[in-house]
């Protein structure tokens, strides 16, 4: 599933619609580009080549799985097909409830153009289309002003702060942002909460 969304952007900077394209075996180089120190600052720093290879394998497997567990994507500028970053959603248990989580990385040359917000809206639509979980959460560091702004602009509700480990062993104080994806049909009726 590809989705195209026009970003909201600063009036003095041109912006183009973005597409989210399912992650594939050929996307490892983009993962290396997104491993830049300035992009990984709030996530414990850049990963090793071995860690990136493992992450790429997880992304590829998740995107091949069609059971609703989630999906990873390349963020692509619609006009010229240039890669601008990564985004995805995946299942997790949060406070006793099964939800989706999302996360993204936008390459430095594309930041400040509304690309992350547009991609987040597109990934929310993809998660909603799965009709599996009621909520999509994002957990940016409380210190990551840009990612917290993306959550706000994409329509997420701030639920409070929480303590997470990401990557494992790296404690992080995060904001818990939640987006209501709408009612979910279940075998026993409609899940509304």
Automatic annotation (TrEMBL):
Q: Which Pfam families does the entry link to?
A: Acetyltransf_3
Recorded GO molecular functions are:
protein-N-terminal-alanine acetyltransferase activity
List keywords of the entry alphabetically.
Acyltransferase, Transferase
* InterPro entries linked: Acyl_CoA_acyltransferase, GNAT_dom, N-acetyltransferase
Task: Cite the N-acetyltransferase domain residue spans from the record.
Answer: 18-177
List the GO terms this entry assigns under cellular component, sorted alphabetically: cytoplasm
- Keyword Acyltransferase on entry: yes
Asked whether the UniProt record includes Lipid biosynthesis among its keywords, one would answer no
Q: Which domain of life is it from?
A: Bacteria
Q: Which SUPFAM superfamilies match?
A: Acyl-CoA N-acyltransferases (Nat)
Q: So what family is this one in? A: Belongs to the acetyltransferase family. RimJ subfamily.
Q: What is this protein called?
A: RimJ/RimL family protein N-acetyltransferase
Species of provenance = Streptomyces fulvorobeus
Organism taxonomic ancestry: Bacteria, Bacillati, Actinomycetota, Actinomycetes, Kitasatosporales
């Amino acid at each position: 599933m590809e989705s195209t969304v026009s970003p909201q952007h600063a009036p003095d900077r041109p912006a183009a619609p973005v597409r989210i394209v399912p992650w594939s075996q050929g996307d490892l180089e983009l993962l290396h580009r997104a491993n830049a120190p300035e992009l990984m600052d709030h996530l414990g720093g850049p990963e090793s080549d071995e860690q990136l290879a493992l992450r790429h394998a997880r992304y590829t497997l998740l995107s091949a799985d069609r059971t609703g567990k989630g999906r990873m994507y390349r963020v692509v500028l619609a006009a010229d097909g240039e890669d601008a970053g990564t985004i995805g959603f995946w299942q997790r248990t949060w406070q006793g409830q099964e939800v989706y989580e999302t996360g993204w990385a936008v390459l430095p040359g594309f930041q400040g153009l509304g690309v992350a917000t547009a991609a987040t809206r597109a990934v929310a639509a993809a998660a909603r289309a799965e009709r599996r979980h009621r909520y999509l959460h994002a957990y940016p560091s409380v210190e990551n002003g840009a990612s917290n702004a993306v959550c706000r602009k994409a329509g997420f509700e701030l639920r409070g702060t929480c303590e997470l480990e990401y990557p494992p062993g790296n404690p992080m104080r995060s904001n818990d942002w939640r987006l209501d994806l709408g009612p979910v049909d279940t075998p026993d009726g409609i899940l509304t909460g």
